[in-house]
Write a structure and sequence with these properties.
Length: about 150
């Protein structure tokens, strides 16, 4: 595949490190990951004497919340940590570092994002529906201090 062709987005992994020390060897496969992005917040200034236009000034850059979805499975270090932080307000284990890798056809990383100081802000289970026959989905949402894009395809 040429370096000028975009990668397919269905091969990816995520890895979680709690407190910068403890990696989670079980939480790496997810059905979807959303929120890899930035937004520039702006402020409009009305100039005196010319009311037809505004100046737009940048204020700050923010990241979107990362949302990870997968089927409900056995408890993992990441899911137990998120549960303790959200239900018990256990502030001694607050932040995760998250690495997200987009994989190529050969399984090698093509793009990598690093999310620093990711704070769990939501954990939610999908609807229990006896008629659907679908897996129960568990979603985890993190608010990150920063998300850095570390590379492109080689």
């Amino acid at each position: 595949m040429s370096i000028y062709q975009p990668e397919l987005n269905h091969r990816f992994l995520a890895s979680f490190v709690l407190l910068g020390l403890v990696p989670d060897p079980l939480s790496f496969k997810f059905a979807s990951i959303t929120g890899l992005g930035y937004q520039l917040q702006t402020r409009s200034i009305h100039e005196g004497g010319h009311n037809a236009s505004n100046r737009v000034l940048p204020q700050r850059s923010t990241t979107s919340n990362l949302v990870f979805e997968r089927g409900v499975m056995i408890p993992t270090p990441m899911s137990v940590g998120v549960q303790l932080i959200l239900s018990e307000f256990l502030t001694s284990i607050t932040y995760f570092d998250i690495t997200i890798m987009l994989l190529g056809e050969s399984g090698m990383p093509q793009s990598i994002w690093m999310a620093s100081d990711a704070l769990p802000v939501r954990m939610q289970y999908g609807a229990l529906d006896a008629n659907s026959g679908q897996p129960l989905i568990n979603s985890f949402e993190f608010s990150c201090r920063s998300i850095e894009w570390l590379g492109v395809k080689l």
